[in-house]
Amino acid sequence: MTEAIAYDVIVLGAGPTGENVADRTRAAGLSTAVVESELVGGECSYWACMPSKALLRPVIARADARRTPGLRGAVQGPLDAPAVLAHRDYYTSHWKDDGQVAWLDSIGARLYRGRGRLDGPRRVAVTAPDGTEHLLTARHAVAVCTGSRAVFPDLPGLDTVRPWTSREATSADHVPGRLVVVGGGVVGAEMATAWQALGSQVTVLVRGGGLLPRMEPFAGELVAEALKEAGADVRTGTSVTSVSRDGTTLTVEVSGGDRIEADEILFATGRAPRTDDLGLETVGLEPGSWLTVDDSCRVEDSSWLYGVGDVNHRALLTHQGKYQARIAGAAIAARAQRVPLLETDRWGAHAATADHAAVPQVVFTDPEAAAVGLSLAEAERAGHRVRAVDQDLSAVAGAGLYVDGYRGRARMVVDLEREVLLGATFVGPGVGELIHSATIAVAGEVPIDRLWHAVPSYPTISEVWLRLLEAYRDA
């Protein structure tokens, strides 16, 4: 191993979270090294957000066109699957990271390719692909931004059938004739939507009572209804008991004794932190554990170690990881420059406050589902005195103009003591573009009587805000 090289900050992981930590610390004048064992750009760029949305966009566009007068007859027939896959490949830069590497170089961050492991306090050992080793030391901070990975259930022989995770589902180079999707969360719902539309016969197996269990129940109900109408088989209360492969054919046995034949099977059943081979034990932490952090993303009981993004388990979403990265980068820079952090300032530059109460998410199914903050059940469990206000989106003029036969629903959850929004959920075509207004209302704790004066443009789907506020006022 060569002589140790010192930097102000070392970032482990070059996904969107790590890139943003590096950007903020470099902007503050700190020397920064970034260590990445795979592609610069991370999961989001190559196996998650970007490829999944590239697969889904033609699906949603066709669905909307088929519900639009004058276009319905022009979009009959199947999707051009090779063209959709080529579009996906373009948005993943064909799984090459030259552009992202060039961006890191442009901000003055030093990239080390290879496996990085903690080697005691403020030390990182890097083993390059060719076996070369480097020892890096951090004057101020090491930020762990290594993300999360898919996990499989404990099924005997599962590794012998070549199951898909989200990575294989978003990067497959062909359309499987029959696809079983295990899990009803975001990945399961989105990938079922995409591959059914691209020509697969999809069977969705959900152990619980419905899809999208972390959202309001009506979200999963509407998405499941649309999947069934598209030809998918959606089974709830169903668990996989065994999987085997004979040549190219999979046999999936489920609770109750039924057997399903398929060509591929996707397990979208949970995530685990990528911290199992990170050297956490050298700094007194449990390998493979989620990192417990404060609102500046600094690991508890540490003065120099940060856990940013998925690894802290606060919100496993790219946009929230980037938000945390901006917070952590500002905190690292302030501490390095001995600038007092306003620790008591809940909405200051060094506190990831929105990760507690205002986390937005969009599920790009048909229909789209979007939510921020607390659901009604979550708010009630937290002890809030609340009221849910519901609105059928088909009654909004802008929705009817958007597509014929618009089906959707909206809900806002109101804290009755403070008269502010604790959460909002929208389901329907195009609602992903509504969620930021709801996020501002929840994060900013905008009073209901002030929201009344935020006039929505007519005729847009956002007029649902007026209908929701009217329903609250008139009840």
UniProtKB/TrEMBL annotation:
The name this protein goes by in its record: Mercuric reductase
GO molecular function: dihydrolipoyl dehydrogenase (NADH) activity; flavin adenine dinucleotide binding; mercury (II) reductase (NADP+) activity
Positions with a binding annotation for NAD(+): 183-190, 270
Disulfide partners: 44-49
Family: Belongs to the class-I pyridine nucleotide-disulfide oxidoreductase family.
Superkingdom of origin organism: Bacteria
Domain FAD/NAD(P)-binding, residue spans: 7-319
Binding site for FAD: 53, 116, 146-148, 310
EC assignment: 1.16.1.1
Enzyme class: oxidoreductase
Cofactor: FAD
Pfam families hit by this protein: Pyr_redox_2, Pyr_redox_dim
